[in-house]
Design goal:
The chain has 47 residues and is mainly α. The chain has two helices and no strands.
């Protein structure tokens, strides 16, 4: 199998896109919303 630089670039682009989609799904999942809401309110908490 002959792999040239364009094939490698295409594979890297595809893998990067899939990682991006995975991060977006993780960030918007319902399981994580409580943790993110708690982190969003940290600056407003009093000591």
């Amino acid at each position: 199998m002959d792999m040239d630089i364009n094939t490698l670039r295409s594979a890297t682009t595809l893998v990067s896109f899939l990682v991006f989609i995975a991060i977006v799904c993780w960030a918007w999942s319902k399981r994580r919303s409580g943790d993110f809401q708690e982190a969003a309110n940290l600056p407003f908490e009093q000591d």
